Amino acid sequence: MILSFWEKQLLDEYDFLVVGAGIMGCSVAFELREKYANAKIGIIERDFFSNGASTKNAGFACFGSPTEILYDIQLMGERNALELVRKRYEGLQILTKRIADAGRTNFGGYELMIHDTLSKSDIQSLNEILFPIFKQTVFVDASKQIQAFQFSNIAQMIYTAFEAQVDSGKLLNAYWHLLQSKNIRFFNGLTVKKLLGNEIEAESSLNGNITCRANKIFICTNAFPIDASFKLPVKPGRGQVLITSPIEGLPFNGSFHFDAGFYYFRNVGNRVLFGGGRNLDFTSEETTDFAPNQLILDDLKLKLEEIILSNFSFSIEQEWQGIMAFSENKLPLIHSINQYATYLMACNGMGVALCPFVAKEIVDQL
Ligand SMILES: Cc1cc2nc3c(=O)[nH]c(=O)nc-3n(C[C@H](O)[C@H](O)[C@H](O)COP(=O)(O)OP(=O)(O)OC[C@H]3O[C@@H](n4cnc5c(N)ncnc54)[C@H](O)[C@@H]3O)c2cc1C
Asked: What is the distance in A from the centroid of ligand 1 to the CA of 75?
């Protein structure tokens, strides 16, 4: 099938084209509109929703648990680790202001310590270095609540009031509506296959190959490579997620992390959403293939039975997978492909917070 004259005109000559309608692509498009009120802006998305991480994730509006921050300090030094926390915190504030109704709950976040514990002075030191960012105490020991939450085999629990939860479907839906109301054109069902200078070659299942042009192109496709000719310095990381059916008398609300953030769960109403376990099988999970990993899913179910819901009977209602992108140094990646196209990746598993910040940073620099 061939595009009509009218259809071709709809696709031609954009000021800005963004590839990928996840939270990164949406954040970039929003910032572009803020800065360029009259620019012609389009978003190209291969699927009818976004299809990568943004509508598959756990919906933690988080900035890093105590052990994750301590790990990052070891990895990248205190200054870089704190800068990353600041970007996440500011990103969350940008997002909350922009999308007020995203099914948000403010139940706070908890880190569960299974083996080692953090001493009072460890927590206090962490709070001291975080104070310039949050201007308040960030982490407190909440171990007294372990019993009330009916968790098993937990040695310590640390709470922060600065973490919240979003409904990832509502968040993206609200973003798409907002961008459409700002005259940003969505092209769904177009898969970008090639970049040639300022030209994008894309494929539509009904119309075959399509070419469009823009003065500036932002590639926000997470870990999905669009053109085999450029190698991106990111690795994919698949995330396995499951959700239980409703549990009568569920004794906790909030978002919870354990094993340095490799496992995470939260309540969604009176269900429990649980994900993670990539560290059990890193090699298989380094993929963009949305396939279940039975080893990990079985482990998640076991941990539900033994740690999280040992006093409750429950069933698994649904399982799914999402794809993350990881950079070598855990920092967001802004990579110039040619003079027209820039690749943006912020995730490293925490894009809800980071994407709005990174998008603002890059558009401010234009
Ligand atoms: C299981 C899981 C749980 C997570 N939990 C959390 C959490 O609780 N909190 C948090 O902060 N972060 C979490 N994350 C990470 C967070 O979801 C991501 O960092 C964020 O969504 C990344 O957004 P993005 O827009 O870069 O990528 P995506 O949402 O993947 O968007 C990329 C888009 O590009 C499109 N695309 C790809 N290739 C092409 C192409 N060739 N042509 C056109 N379109 C294309 C895809 O269809 C997709 O819609 C989680 C991720 C996963 C997978």
From this structure: 24
